[in-house]
Design a protein that fits this description.
2 copies of one chain form a homodimer.
Chain A: H1 2-20, E1 22-27, E2 30-32, H2 35-42, E3 50-53, E4 60-69, E5 74-82, E6 89-92, H3 94-100, E7 106-107, E8 116-121, E9 126-136, E10 139-142, H4 144-150, E11 157-162, E12 168-177, E13 184-188, H5 189-194, E14 202-206
Parallel strand pairs in A: 1-13, 2-5, 6-9, 7-9, 10-12
Antiparallel strand pairs in A: 1-14, 2-6, 3-4, 4-5, 4-8, 8-9, 10-13, 11-12, 11-14
């Protein structure tokens, strides 16, 4: 009886959360590679090896790892995400960018304007890019159904309150609506640490 | 004439800022040592050497550096702040705490309850503490005059909006009023990176 009660309570809490809040995910540093760069770094005809699916449908973590290098230092063991993209893009935190000795701009994923050059290497090869390094701008992926529910539209700027041991309200959060998305907010590890992120963290959209 | 105009404009802007906003300072990892620990780490009768004053009156950075170590790693070259305190206290960011392999609690400076044990060492000696490691809770130092101006009181919890390239509103910010303080907000480097902190960053207190 007690077990049943717990299960019911848990399910109700889960559904209420889903109605009023969105999930938060912290993204670690990662690299999206073009097919050309995959061949330069891993060999001719090489294809990426899927390790596990990510929350966004069609996106996956690969077993391949690379080293990224700037004028002040290198970061080893950076994960490659698949599938391949048209252009190679390296996403790091501001902490990482400082340790590389670079002042990477804060950009929306996919917008490589004004991003910085960076060296990517493996034991098989290296590429020196003239652009691609960025700090990803925090954002919300949202389905059209959830966009309607939360009354937001594509490219709208909202505030998002993250609850937890270090609560804060992220300002200037861009909303991206797409029917292929799963609804959640993406922040980097600087932001995750600043808000005391855990896997249970939830967030509330605040209309400006 | 143009120079005079610029100077006047700059001064007016500075004064307006001072009226409506507070300054923000990012605190790096640091150690406050008791006299006993100073002797254990640097030798009998040793006294700390002041390098430069900090913004809070009476507080200073010392030339002494220590290494702090946890189960997963060490951080070298951690600055010692003076003067000595009754109890040794080690303040790190959540990023640092993870790299040490420890889950340090977020605490108000001076409150060592539930803080973690940590090893501190130099080339002259080492101490193994059973408490003292914390992540400092973000806070505002404020003079009684400014507290009146901003309508806040000691231990009040407020929100603080930080302006800049990555604007956000820190929630749950504790106000500490003391006539010996200089008015400014203290955050750590995770929080600094999350809000795109620069030395020009300013913040506005929002009453809850």
């Amino acid at each position: 009886m007690q077990n049943l009660l717990n299960e019911v309570v848990e399910e109700v809490v889960k559904r209420v959360k889903r109605e009023a809040f969105i999930e938060v995910e912290a993204s670690g540093r990662h690299v999206h590679l073009s097919e050309k760069e995959v061949e330069s770094l891993f060999g001719k005809g090489y294809t990426l090896t899927k390790l596990r699916d990510l929350s966004q449908p069609g996106q996956y973590a690969c077993k391949e790892r690379v080293t990224i290098s700037g004028p002040k230092g290198s970061i080893k063991n950076v994960i490659v995400l698949g599938p391949c993209r048209k252009e190679t893009q390296v996403e790091v935190s501001l902490t990482d960018s400082s340790s590389l000795g670079l002042k990477a701009p804060i950009k929306q994923s996919g917008d490589l304007n004004e991003t910085l050059g960076i060296k990517i290497s493996t034991e098989h090869g290296e590429v020196i890019l003239d652009k691609g390094l960025m700090i990803a701008k925090r954002h919300i992926h949202i389905t059209p159904q959830d966009a309607t529910k939360f009354d937001v539209c594509d490219n709208e700027i909202v505030q998002v309150k993250v609850f937890g041991c270090r609560p804060l309200i992220f300002d200037d959060v861009v909303v991206r609506v797409n029917e292929n998305f799963k609804t959640n907010m993406h922040i980097d590890y600087d932001e995750a640490n600043a808000c005391g992120y855990t896997k249970e963290s939830i967030a509330k959209i605040i209309k400006k």
